[in-house]
Design goal:
- By secondary structure, the protein is an alpha+beta fold.
- It has a single domain, classed as 2-Layer Sandwich (Alpha-Beta Plaits).
- Helix content is 27%, strand content 42%.
- The chain has 2 helices and 5 strands; from the N terminus they run βαββαββ.
- A 5-stranded mixed beta sheet has the order 4-1-3-2-5, with helices on one face.
- A hairpin with a 5-residue loop joins strand 2 and strand 3.
- Helix 1 packs antiparallel against helix 2.
Length: 91
């Protein structure tokens, strides 16, 4: 089974390599979607893929890269759309 989640990550998550490490992790797992910084200091991402791999991405986002400090992770499940061909950083 496949699923899609839309997440918002709060804390010290910008300027610490969060987007690049999320892209690397997603590509390793075969998860597709995007990640971007928001003006309010959060990071937003959409993950689509196999249930287990998407769950692994959620777990990754709870910690992030070494320099990050995650305070909160908002997770919203959405209908799986299979709309992405890869995982990218969005600007």
């Amino acid at each position: 089974m496949s699923k899609r989640v839309h997440v918002f990550i709060s804390g010290r998550v910008q300027g610490v390599g969060f987007r690049a490490s999320t892209r690397r992790e997603a590509r390793t797992k075969g998860v597709k979607g995007w990640v971007k910084n928001l003006a309010d200091g959060r990071v937003e991402a959409v993950f689509e893929g196999e249930n287990e791999k998407v769950d692994e991405m959620i777990e990754f986002c709870k910690e992030g890269p070494r320099a990050a400090s995650v305070d909160d992770l908002e997770i919203n499940e959405e209908d799986y759309k299979e709309e992405f061909k890869e995982f990218k950083i969005s600007y």
